[in-house]
């Protein structure tokens, strides 16, 4: 089964990471911080097929948030988009301190194992987080390449 993330836009990337560029999504704020500790060499991030990676995403909320439905997608080079479930489900299960959260700065951490990608395939990984009213909290994409497991 393929697991993938949506290419949100080809707008110029804004830096919210010291190591790689984050591609913004139309109409939704970039995360205030986006990191993948396993992406050590910068864009495109190099991973191994089946490797578990950690998405660390920080965002600003304007008020109380009781749910954080999160969509994770991968877009393949041929344009196919595949959703994949996050192991935490609703991001409230991954936010530091849990939900509800108040106005302010918050961080979520998602462990993700990406499978079903062809060796040396370059993909776009997108994560979109919304609140209980479907208002965008944060969205960003990165470019990644997956290599065969050694």
UniProtKB/TrEMBL annotation:
InterPro entries documented for this protein: Ig_E-set, ML_dom
Record's keyword terms, sorted: Signal
Signal sequence extent: 1-17
Domain of life, per lineage: Eukaryota
Stretches assigned to the MD-2-related lipid-recognition domain: 22-144
Protein name: Protein involved in innate immunity and lipid metabolism
Organism field: Lutzomyia longipalpis
